[in-house]
């Protein structure tokens, strides 16, 4: 069937040269970050982000006039692969570089593009995603945060949840600015929110492992300037769909457990056939997913619409990355979390992080619903 065809893509030679540069940089930088406590997306290190900015590895595909580097999506892909493979501390800039900067370039005012976007590319300005609410995650159109026009600009009330506001300077929030009418997708808008604005309370949420990854952010009669509107009023749903496309298509959707897989390969006994067969399968799967993921990125480069392919690759990728810690527990005779065993420690951390892999960026069931619809099955 044509819609699940991903034309194979090969990384051009300049990508492999860039990979060597990134590896050389990381081999110097990463020894300082070896103490693994959390997933890479949670390692917040502004100095590291600034170093990436200095090397031109943030905002890589953006126009030079806004501080970007006009490089290809495939070059950016290679930089991401290398950062994720070593679990680099990317939390500070991750959201801003992956999606917020693009949203500002596409839908923001010229002032936002010239004053904020260059700071993102330097690794100095950080963003969080303001989509989910306490009663609206999968059912995103059910959000209740509301902004109304007032003489000073907009007055915002509501709550956003599961975001990284504790590390961010700004949030791009999806809010209701007009009544829904016939379609709940109508009347939604995206606003750029400076998180230091009075009336905003950020309450941390501890995750399963006892760390703060997330927050609940309350907006209580927050007054925002009139020019905080991104794009057109009422076009928020369409704009958010574009943003989610960036969120679902990257290599982070199958590489979350890759460090554990490498640790498993290093710990396997040469004469253990069960380990050899299972690890061989996982490596083949990783290779296939990588080819699909690169093929998908190449489709973006050619400006082709991947349709449901992004959702499919994300679903397969997260299933893969969730299976790796399960296989570690099954194949190796270690006590999970044993401080004497790096494998056991990494496996324990990955098992605890794994449930989130198939929730973030759209849950498995919801993506499968989209895939079924795209395939004409419902
Ligand atoms: C690590 C991580 C990072 C995140 N980062 C952000 C962020 O930065 N900003 C942000 O706004 N949000 C963020 N989220 C929130 C994320 O987008 C939501 O958790 C996700 O969309 C699911 O929404 P929910 O948690 O409200 O669960 P619900 O929507 O209540 O879903 C609960 C369960 O029901 C299932 N379900 C729901 N509807 C259906 C349906 N129609 N058919 C079948 N099954 C269904 C879901 O698949 C899920 O298993 C993050 C989440 C995680 C785990």
Description of the structure:
With 378 residues, this protein is of the alpha+beta class. The chain has 3 domains: 2-125, Acyl-CoA dehydrogenase/oxidase, N-terminal domain (Butyryl-Coa Dehydrogenase, subunit A, domain 1), CATH 1.10.540.10; 129-235, Butyryl-CoA Dehydrogenase, subunit A, domain 2 (Beta Barrel); 249-374, Butyryl-CoA Dehydrogenase, subunit A, domain 3 (Up-down Bundle). Helix content is 43%, strand content 15%. The protein has helices at 13-29, 46-54, 73-85, 94-107, 110-115, 117-121, 236-248, 258-267, 273-301, 309-331, 342-353, 364-374, and strands at 127-130, 146-150, 153-163, 170-176, 188-194, 200-206, 212-225, 229-230. The strands form 2 sheets. Strands 1-4-5-8 form a 4-stranded mixed beta sheet, covered by helices on one side. The protein has a 4-stranded antiparallel beta sheet with strand order 2-3-7-6, with no helix packed on it. Strand 2 (146-150) and strand 3 form a beta hairpin. Helix 1 runs parallel beside helix 3, helix 8 (258-267) runs parallel beside helix 10 (309-331) and helix 9 runs antiparallel to helix 10. The radius of gyration is 21 Å and the shape is globular. The structure holds flavin-adenine dinucleotide. Residues 128-132, 137-138, 162-164, 356, 359-360, 362-366, 369 line the site of flavin-adenine dinucleotide.
């Amino acid at each position: 069937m044509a819609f699940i065809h991903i034309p194979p893509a090969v990384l051009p030679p300049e990508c492999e040269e860039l990979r060597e540069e990134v590896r050389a940089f990381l081999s110097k930088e990463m020894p300082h970050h070896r103490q693994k406590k959390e997933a890479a997306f949670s390692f917040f290190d502004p100095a590291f982000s600034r170093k990436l900015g200095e090397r031109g590895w943030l905002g890589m595909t953006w126009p030079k006039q806004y501080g970007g580097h006009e490089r290809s999506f495939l070059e950016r892909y290679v930089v991401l692969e290398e950062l994720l493979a070593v679990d680099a501390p990317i939390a500070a800039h991750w959201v801003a570089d992956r999606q917020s900067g693009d949203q500002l370039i596409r839908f923001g005012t010229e002032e936002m593009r010239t004053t904020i976007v260059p700071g993102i590319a330097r690794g100095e300005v950080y963003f969080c995603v303001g989509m989910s609410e306490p009663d609206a995650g999968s059912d995103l159109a059910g959000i209740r945060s509301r902004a109304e026009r007032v003489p000073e600009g907009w007055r915002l009330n509501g709550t956003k949840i599961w975001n990284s506001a504790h590390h961010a300077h700004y949030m791009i929030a999806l809010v209701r600015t007009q009544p829904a009418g016939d379609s709940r997708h109508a009347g939604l808008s995206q606003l750029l929110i400076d998180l230091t604005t009075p009336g905003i309370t950020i309450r941390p949420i501890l995750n399963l492992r006892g760390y703060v990854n997330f927050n609940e952010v309350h907006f209580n009669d927050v007054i925002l300037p009139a020019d905080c509107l991104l794009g057109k009023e009422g076009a928020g749903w369409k704009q958010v769909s574009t943003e989610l496309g960036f969120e679902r298509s990257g290599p982070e959707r199958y590489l979350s457990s890759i460090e554990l897989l490498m640790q498993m390969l290093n710990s396997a006994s040469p004469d253990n056939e069960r380990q050899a067969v299972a690890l061989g399968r996982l490596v083949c799967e990783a290779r296939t997913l990588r080819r699909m993921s690169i093929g998908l990125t190449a489709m973006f480069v050619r400006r082709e619409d991947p349709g449901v392919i992004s959702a499919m690759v994300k679903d397969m990728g997260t299933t893969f990355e969730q299976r790796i810690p399960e296989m570690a527990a099954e194949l190796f005779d270690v006590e999970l979390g044993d401080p004497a065993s790096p494998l056991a420690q990494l496996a324990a951390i990955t098992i605890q992080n794994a449930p989130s892999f198939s929730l973030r960026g759209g849950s498995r069931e919801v993506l499968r619903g989209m895939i079924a619809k795209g395939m004409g099955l419902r």
